[in-house]
Protein: Short-subunit dehydrogenase
Organism: Oceanotoga teriensis
Amino acid sequence: MKEFKNKVAVITGAANGIGLELSKEAAKRGMKVVMADIAENDLNIAFDEVKKISSEVIKVVTDVTIFEDMVDLSKKATDSFEKVDLFFNNAGVVVPGPIWEIPNKDIDYIMQSNVYSIAYGLKVFIPLMMKQGTPAHIVNTASVAGLLSSPGMPTYHMTKFANVGLSESVNYQLRAINSNIKMSVYCPGFIQTDLNHCDKRRPKRFEIDKNDPYYTSQTYKDGLKRADHVINTGIPIDSVGMSVFQAIEDEQFYILTHPQYNPVIGLRVKTILEGKNPDISIFKK
């Protein structure tokens, strides 16, 4: 996809961070923009910001962990703008902590937010785009955490590896049938987003139980501190929109924006191919 003017972009997780930057970039390029997010107040503020760039913007309060909400999002997008040319399957969350300590509710929360939501988005928007028959593109937001492993945030790695694997396999399927839909998987490192505050946007069924001792534990508090640190020291967010849209223009499948992680990605593959065991020492340097 080279031309964006008057085409339609749907963005999940559009109220903050990467989703908001993608919404602004789409608007700057003359696209009609559908902004979806679960956080209604944040969405209203973000919508007003994007509305200053383009008048052709709508907002849809959406819980991406609910399939019917994703269906509703597609219907509202097509009711307003008739089609969807570009879908950013972007919404996601983070949960810190050792797998043997975190509550099951946290595992369900991150799985449904980071994996089910991506699958739901593909299931809903691929048939819609196929029926249109015009050039279309889907970008799944994963993370460099889906290409390498570390001792931190194992459930986050779990879901982002799933995202990358799903994206790769679906892309093969689309290429095999010579589909009109191109795909990309966006795998950034740390960016100065609001991801470290995602707990305030949890769906009600995943709300933190203040009576659960885990949420007053030092483990939980330390995890939040680490999340704050890595997000706050990440790269500025203002380059996100331009880099992702350039990758779409170039029909680039893997969108990597943090080259400093490439040696670690390569080392993981080399370790696997050489039959070696993962080396924890690389994270102690």
Observations:
- The chain has one domain: 8-260.
- The chain is about 45% helix and 10% strand.
- The helical segments are 17-28, 40-51, 67-81, 104-132, 154-176, 218-232, 240-249, 262-273.
